[in-house]
Amino acid sequence: MKDVLNREWQIGDHVKVADRAPTRELGIANASGIVFGLTTPSSTGIAITGAQVDDFGVNVWIPTQQKAMWLGEELLSFVSHGAGGVMKWGDVTFVRTGAGRWITRGDKVRVVDTSATRQSGIANAVGTVAGWTTPPGFDVDAEGTLGTDYSIDVSIDERGIASLQDGEIEFVSPGAGQVMHANGKTLVRNEQGRWIKQRE
Question: Is there a single domain that holds both residue 68 and residue 21?
């Protein structure tokens, strides 16, 4: 059995379901989906459709079915990291980058050296994620994503806020000291990026 957290699949990945007998029976052959969870069936007792290779299953949201299904990973192929995907945990919102990392306000990022960032004088600068911008009228909560036409707002020292495209930033470190309120608890983010219960 392998560690669920060390698999190639990550929450938010976009996948395609294989055309096999079990998926045809479920009516999801060749369907597109989004990874919503991972499990070890022997520990959780969750029933998995497929071979359950290495005691592992993937929970996939199938939009055309409007439901999530637990599938063996041999029934899935990777499509993308789902850049712009949005996930909320407590009162903190996370956004998925094209590189597959979930970022949130307060995270430190480096501005990638491109002709556009050099021209703006911010290439290789390190800043803090301040938020994100979507087109007027775009409903992030309803869509569950920032869509395709969005930017990441980064605070860069005295230079202020720069609105950058997904490929123009790379993650440096988590925003230590961030506070989250979830399930009646107050959590604080440590330097490793873990959320720990705040001491009374």
Answer: yes
Helix (H, G, I), strand (E, B) or coil at 34: strand
CA proximity to 112, closest of 62, 169, 69, 157: 169
Is the full-model pTM beyond 0.70? yes
pLDDT of res. 135: 82
CA dihedral 68, 72, 73, 77 (to 10 degrees): -60
Contact 77, 170 (CB under 8 A): no
**CATH number of 90's domain:** 2.30.30.1060
Chunk the chain into consecutive blocks of 10 residues (it has 200) and report each block's average pLDDT, rounded to whole numbers: 59 94 95 92 91 85 92 93 88 89 93 94 95 83 78 91 92 90 88 82
**Cα 106–Cα 86–Cα 13 angle in degrees, nearest 5:** 115
Question: Residue 47: which CATH number?
Answer: 2.30.30
Which residue segment(s) compose the domain that 118 sits in?
86-197
Amino acid at the residue 98: G
In the chain, where does DSSP find H-type helix? 21-26, 41-44, 115-119, 140-143
Q: How many domains does the chain have?
A: 2
pLDDT for 26 equals 94
Are residue 74 and residue 100 in the same domain, yes or no? no
> Are 33 and 114 found together in one domain?
no
**pLDDT (0 to 100) of residue 17:** 96
Same domain, 161 and 192: yes
